[in-house]
Specification:
The protein is of the alpha/beta class. It contains 15 helices and 8 strands. 49% of the residues lie in helices and 13% in strands.
C-alpha cells in the first residue's frame, strides 16, 4: 500500500473496499480441551422443570466477545436444539460477521420426546398422516409452551445478559409448534422462523385456527419467515401454502412476513440449512440501509436510524459493511465530506477489525484540515494492524510523522 499517495476518490474507495474485506478474514480463536477437542458450540445446562416434571438439557451458545464485555444480546430459541446446533452456530457467526444479523445468544433446546412436546393436540386414529396410527403421548405443546414462558425464558434472562428481542425457530414438528406458539402466545416472541412445518397435523387444525386468529389480530406486530424445501413431500409444502393463503386474506397491518420455497431441489431434512440462512436474513432485513437513506442523507437521520436498530436488536447491531460503504460513495459523489466522516466514524466503530474504515477516515480528516483527528485515527489503525498482524504499522506511523510536520 502506498501510504504517501492515499486520496479519497471513488476509484480508490472501490479498491479499498475489497481490501477491507480481505484483511478482515481473521477467525476468532476457539477454545480447546486438554485433549485438543475443539469447543465452540456452547455449554450444556440441565434445567429442572416442574411444569414438565423432568430434567431438560439445553445448550447455550454465547456470541463472540460476550465474556469480555457487558453488552446485552437478543436470544434465539432453537427447537430440536441438539440436531440443529452445529449448523446454527456456524450460520449465525457467519451472518453476524457480515453485519446481516446482530450478534445473539443461541438457546438450543434438546428434544426428549418431540411427538409429545411439539404437537398441539392429541392425534388419534386416522389423523396421523393417514397412517391410521395413534400417538398416545401427543398433545403436549400447551405444557411445553408454559415451560418456555415460565421456566426457560426466565432462567435465561436471569443468568445471561439478554436484550428483550426474542426469536423462536423450529423445523417440521418444531415448525408446527412455532405456529402454535405464534397464535397462542403472540406476545412471547418478536419473530419466528417456521421451517417446513408439519401442518398436516390433525387435519390441518393450525390452518383452521389461523382463520380466526389473523382475522382478530389486526395489530399483530411480529416478524415471521415461512419456508419449505422445493421437493418437500406430502404434508409440508402444500399445507404451508394453504396456511399462508389464510394470512393473505387478512394480513395484520404491522405483520412482517415472507413465504418462500428453496429452488435447488431440497427435501424435508436437507432444507433446514438454507431455510435457517434465509430465515435469519429476512427477520433482520431491516438492518439493510434503505435507498431513501442513501439519496436523502442527513447526519441526524443516519444517526437516528443507527440508534433505532441498536435499541431494537441490542447495542452491537450494525448494518452490513457494504451498506456503510455505499452510503459513503454517494456522499463523496455529492462532495459531502463531513457526512462521509460521520458514516466512517460509525462504520469504524461497528467494524473494529476493518482497518480500511480507519484508513479512509484519517484521510478524510486530513482533507478537511482536521489534522489532530487524522493523527488520532492513524494511531488507532496502528493498534488494529498490530492486533491483527496486518503489517501496516510502519506505513501508518509514517503518515503520523508526516502530519505532525504539517
Amino acid at each position: 500500500m502506498n501510504f504517501n499517495s492515499i486520496k479519497i476518490s471513488l476509484a480508490v474507495l472501490s479498491a479499498f473496499f475489497f481490501q477491507l474485506i480481505a484483511t478482515a478474514q481473521v477467525a476468532d480463536k476457539i477454545e480447546l480441551t486438554e485433549d485438543n477437542q475443539l469447543l465452540g458450540l456452547g455449554t450444556q445446562y440441565i434445567l429442572k422443570s416442574d411444569i414438565l416434571q423432568e430434567d431438560r438439557p439445553i445448550i447455550i451458545s454465547l456470541p463472540k466477545g460476550y465474556k469480555e464485555g457487558e453488552t446485552n444480546y437478543p436470544v434465539l430459541y432453537l427447537l430440536d436444539g441438539l440436531g440443529n446446533i452445529k449448523h446454527q452456530v456456524g450460520t449465525v457467526e457467519l451472518l453476524t460477521e457480515s453485519g446481516i444479523i446482530p450478534p445473539m445468544i443461541i438457546v438450543a433446546i434438546e428434544s426428549l420426546d418431540r411427538a409429545r412436546d411439539l404437537t398441539p393436540s392429541h392425534a388419534g386414529q386416522d389423523v396421523h398422516g393417514g397412517a391410521g396410527t395413534d400417538i398416545p403421548q401427543s398433545g403436549g405443546a400447551p405444557s411445553f409452551l408454559q415451560f418456555l414462558e415460565n421456566e426457560l425464558i426466565p432462567y435465561v434472562e436471569s443468568n445471561f445478559r439478554t436484550h428483550p428481542y426474542r426469536l423462536l425457530e423450529g423445523h417440521s414438528f418444531g415448525g408446527l409448534f412455532c405456529t402454535y406458539a405464534l397464535m397462542n402466545k403472540p406476545e412471547l416472541f418478536n419473530a419466528f422462523i417456521v421451517q417446513a412445518p408439519a401442518l398436516w397435523w390433525n387435519k390441518e387444525e393450525m390452518t383452521e385456527q389461523a382463520k380466526d386468529f389473523f382475522n382478530s389480530n389486526d395489530s399483530l406486530d411480529i416478524t415471521v419467515y415461512f419456508g419449505a424445501g422445493e421437493a418437500e413431500g406430502w404434508g409440508m409444502r402444500q399445507e404451508l401454502a394453504r396456511y399462508v393463503d389464510v394470512i393473505k386474506q387478512n394480513p395484520p397491518k404491522k405483520f412482517r412476513w415472507k413465504h418462500e420455497e428453496t429452488t435447488s431441489g431440497e427435501e424435508h431434512m436437507d432444507s433446514r440449512l438454507l431455510l435457517n440462512y434465509y430465515g435469519l436474513k429476512f427477520v433482520f432485513s431491516d438492518l439493510k440501509a434503505s435507498e431513501d437513506l442513501k439519496t436523502n442523507y442527513s447526519d441526524a437521520s443516519f444517526l437516528q436510524g443507527e440508534q433505532e436498530l441498536r435499541d431494537k436488536y441490542g447495542p452491537n447491531a450494525r448494518r452490513p459493511a457494504s451498506d456503510y460503504f455505499n452510503i459513503i460513495l454517494e456522499l463523496l459523489h455529492k462532495e459531502n465530506n463531513l457526512g462521509a466522516i460521520t458514516v466512517y466514524k460509525r462504520a469504524a466503530e461497528a467494524y473494529p477489525k476493518y482497518i480500511m474504515f480507519l484508513n479512509n477516515l484519517a484521510a478524510l480528516y486530513e482533507k478537511t484540515n482536521q489534522l489532530d483527528k487524522a493523527i488520532e485515527t492513524y494511531r488507532s489503525a496502528v493498534t488494529v494492524s498490530k492486533k491483527m498482524k496486518l503489517g501496516f504499522e510502519e506505513g501508518y506511523q509514517k503518515e503520523i510523522e508526516r502530519l505532525k510536520k504539517s
